[in-house]
Amino acid sequence: xxKFVNDPKQFVPEMLEGIAxxxxxxxxxxxxxxxxxxxxxxxxxxxxxxxGSGSGHEPAHVMIVGKGMLDAACPGDVFSAPPMDYVLETTxxxxxxxxxxxxxxxxxxxxxxxxxxxxxxxxxxIRVETVLVNDDVSVKDSTYTIGRRGVAGNFxxxxxxxxxxxxxxxxxxxxxxxxxxxxxxxxMGMALxxxxxxxxxxxxxxxxxxxxxxxVGIHGEPGRRREKLANANVxxxxxxxxxxxxxxxxxxxxxxxxxxxxGGTPISELYLLYGRAxxxxxxHGIRVQRNYVGNYxxxxxxxxxxxxxVKLDDELxxxxxxxxxxxxxxx
Amino acid sequence: xxKFVNDPKQFVPEMLEGIAxxxxxxxxxxxxxxxxxxxxxxxxxxxxxxxGSGSGHEPAHVMIVGKGMLDAACPGDVFSAPPMDYVLETTxxxxxxxxxxxxxxxxxxxxxxxxxxxxxxxxxxIRVETVLVNDDVSVKDSTYTIGRRGVAGNFxxxxxxxxxxxxxxxxxxxxxxxxxxxxxxxxMGMALxxxxxxxxxxxxxxxxxxxxxxxVGIHGEPGRRREKLANANVxxxxxxxxxxxxxxxxxxxxxxxxxxxxGGTPISELYLLYGRAxxxxxxHGIRVQRNYVGNYxxxxxxxxxxxxxVKLDDELxxxxxxxxxxxxxxx
Lengths: 331, 331
Hints:
The first copy, chain A, is α/β, with parallel strands linked by helices. The first copy, chain A, has 8 helices and 12 strands.
């Protein structure tokens, strides 16, 4: 296995320990619950924002805990939902009089853990609301999902809600804002290669040297179809067509455009993809007002990308532009 | 070839165009010379800082042009030094009454282009100074280098000099500061896989499934030796031993620690490596006061890492902590 790993069972705890050692003043790590939280949380003057999911999607979500972003992330093992008690204990530790917001990417396992964790937290008198992210247009239902999957679009939900929470917005406003961002956001991804989970030690799925998977999920779930490997422009155009036609995004719209790497693709290639997507959108009268290029929501070491659009309005731009601090220095 | 590419000959220009489209207000792109420069440069009140090298090491250097960093980067094609006339024209465009500083990683091809470009620029009355970065301890001479190679340590030279230049430091001070940072900095890298240059379309070198290359260069140059693949802790300890013993870094030293990804390694694995390196240094009484984890100087899509230490003093910390803006949003 060509990865940096010791005991695969310790992959997630060792990564989390590294994050904590790199951020001693701003982060707390609670090993019992895989919990990474802001050292200054909970703050009784703000709603606490929590996201949890399987690991393997870094920087989502353990590396985007910080001011104006998440208050805490409680990941499970690689590609496994966090256990219900992680959700419960995280929610208890982060309990604020203004309430707690759970942001969940739409996977059945995550929903189950968060539903149960929320119920138990509410029984202890904590007010919790839940929002779902389901931005992936590629398939209707999927291997681990009923309904659409949540992928890199979750960044925009977290960014907006994190900024608004920092300024004291209440829980109802944040639920509404989350749903507004999610409704304005669409994504689709594709894989050039499989990823290799540490505990498996071999690729999760087989993809021929001349093949690519359009619409792949971030856990290697099958997408729309397997196609013959194409050049970068063809790939961008196919992703754009699927994403633009879905909302649909229209001439005159202002959008944010994200080109997200899936973990194994260098940033040089992501900017090459960005250039094509930007020009194609502008040629269709869709104005790219904000851009995000890099690794936001990955699938371990998968070579591949996803493309996300968000239809902007003044309120969303305000929250997207607000200051934010990621827990770790991505750059 | 499993890469995002159209015509391999257009790989670098298409990437540069993407960078420029993503940063219309802060960057200028001059296609004739592969030049990415700050839109507000040259500034007659500051020395202009220029770095050039082959492409394929992004974000170095075209993505770290910005306030408090580089004023311009003029890359060559993938793993090829920029032609002499790129260096000359870039230097002319960036000419400032306070002078121009060329930062060069120590590769023979880069030195040749920059030496000749400098000579021609000086003939036109521009004051130019040159500093070399040669932080790689792995081998004395190398495939494309006489003396030690320059690798991810260049980030620290750029960061310090960029910050000082922004505050009006003169050219002599900057040359001295560059040399001080370089003298305090040591690195070593290793590869789990080869990289694949777009124009070649296949791996640059062969590495068995159970092998790794310790001391690899960022163009796939051979390192110290090929070894049997080991676990993450063993790899970190071997890199640390080589780097620490070289300066040497000693008990009581304050250091900055960088774990740099080579392009194809996910950030989850980099933080796992960071945790081990941090703990081992602290156990030896070497205090990690600043940390940098991510992709700073890559080798296309190579899976691998490098480890860099910088011995800190108050002046270096001041410049490392100064505000800086990368041209592109890495996060």
